[in-house]
């Protein structure tokens, strides 16, 4: 047996000082000096059934795995994929051509398992014409060929070698593609981080078909690997003569064909586009293993029917995992010298500049869609979208509407800038001012802009959502309400009514056109900022809200996609012990699936015009959503949808039969007296009926939370309340929620256990048998019986989102996390979120950043909780425990979050294994005492316990000032650089005005022609270093 080893290597400039070469140990295995565990090997064993052997072919024929019609001109193509399955599962390959099912999985090629050493290899073959080409993917299926799991990422390409002869055998060696494998192909990396790589020139690999025809005993091996982080040709101009340093990727091994472990004599791979490098080599027949690192192997058997071609797809180049850092700030919180009372899209350019100087590769925003539903400050809530497509006029820079603004308008803008330059955002005044000024500019330039080619192009690409949006805004203002059920004949949307509303002949057409005009300029300004970020190597990360407002364009146009008699929220968790009620209608997923989630796909396509990454708000909602009745105001009495309820029969078998007792409010006279004291008789007479001695029920006109609130408001207006309205409402709500089971409003024979049912007096008054049964069923409902259902639901919905754009997707997976969530996110390549104060491990009070998994974003806080400073200062006991258990000090912690504490916490996070460390700007400002004079509580963005919270936080320092604060920038940059995270390059001007480029990229220089290259903390000797990376 001939044994040979191989490894992939690349030639790069690095600033790490590590020289990476391949050597062999005493066993002949490849050893790599990078410190990376990258070797992969498999020894040939005589007992194995090897692909291509006589025994293998006989087994394939016996199992009927050769499909297609075999003719003298056909080529036999066999598939080979290692994959461990459970009982009853199989692998299947399906593709674009009829022989592979034409993407109908039921008609795909079922593979058969073959044990090879410790691996389970799935194999199968087809016969195709020599000119065959197509796409294919692998699927995990059950006995009925129902899909249990599918590959993520791009479809695989099958193209036979040019000039291949009929009767030849081609073997495809593939590895299962997970969602993580697709991450380098997301726009965040492809178009931003690794944009130099994707700009490489495509090369042609020299053909060796003629040589194969002459060497009867040879096998053509096609090597292919994905290397996304390989830079384009670089140059060093610090030498007397500029030196071009091209980028190479090689395969080296122990055979002469692979250079006998010498890089300069190895097999050079050629760039084929899409970060793929490939090349062909002729290898002699015989039993041998090619070693490329841990568990990577290639075995070719010298049988009567060996393959003449092997296509070896070895997945990703395994370098040290890429890690980056970013800053998070709501758009409305940005403050600049040019803004008008609120952050504006064009301010993002300055924020990007600051991010680059600070070493950040990412800027994260909250949702930026129009939320103008109520016409008041309630609309500051960025997650309650009026339209999921329209941008918010709040972020418009009115000065940029025209290059020819009259002096009167310029003066008006300057006066408004001074008036609105407050500590916090004045939402109503700012929006009204901007729209007023914009209308004046519109009157002057409407025909010029709306007849321009750029607007016509924009309109044609966006009219499907733009026309309904403009019509909705007109009707909202005309009827003075966004509640479209109050719009008379316009309550029900039709295309015919829409066209009449937006007709050029209508008297209100200029109002319609004004909304077109505003959206066009918002699009232009955000596009300008987004393109600027891409060119600077900074990812712009958006936010995808879980819901839409009940009175929105989307519920008006697509009412069938929403369950309008329900409301969305979250069960009790870290954010709110009473649960949350967001007020959004839940989704009708069954209806959405009929057109393959077209509404979602259009929504993501629109986002991708501006963002290269996005956060999926409350990703748990794609597994199951906390659904509340529309009449609820709080978030406790809900149920998960979808979920498997408790049936009447199931409960009766357990001895539970008094369903009214368990599902109606359990109100005893002593409860009422205890809660309301002397005014208990007033409460009874106005809200309750006495239906048996000492027992009460709610009157029909106040048997829901909304009815109670409405009646209380009426009584308060008549000055009839003896206590505060808020206290009485809370106490009445408590009585209403004193139940054990929730009866399904659509099926009276189904029940759901009330969350935290053991806390209710209704439960406490039950007999022991009933208590034990209900406790057991409660834990089964919430923690066991739903897992498979929720997993299947997520695998239906989430791939539709991921496939509709090439943005990098991150999921906000905080709260009550089902066991199925993290495995599904890992499978789909979704990046999770880790907040130290909200550990996912139930036995921990504080998360341990050093133990976070790679596929996560880590952060010390987020917009839905207090800032790092406020968190540190609000609870003395917790502060002491953190200081002792995390900081490791037995001393007394400082009562204030001093810069040293902030530095410690931030360093923990940048040094974490997480792919991303993203910090709210408020937490970064805590590094400098100068910025901590503002009370920490004023820096909180949202209070989840308050459904009517005013989202108005503004940074108390301008971006221009932050750009000039070299001390803060140095502190932040030091943290990021010291952690080994990647950084964008920074262009700075020194005091003499000389331009220099400071390159801060981990592992590789990012050198640009005509610019000096300086490695932070290291000196170049004037001689370029040649480094070898080994895969």
Automatic annotation (TrEMBL):
Keywords: Carbohydrate metabolism, Cytoplasm, Glycosyltransferase, Transferase. The keyword Transit peptide does not apply. Pfam families: CBM_20 (PF00686), Glyco_hydro_77 (PF02446). One of its GO terms (cellular component) is cytoplasm. SUPFAM superfamilies: (Trans)glycosidases (SSF51445), Starch-binding domain-like (SSF49452). It is an enzyme of class 2 (transferase). GO terms for molecular function: 4-alpha-glucanotransferase activity; starch binding. This is 4-alpha-glucanotransferase. It comes from Salix dunnii.
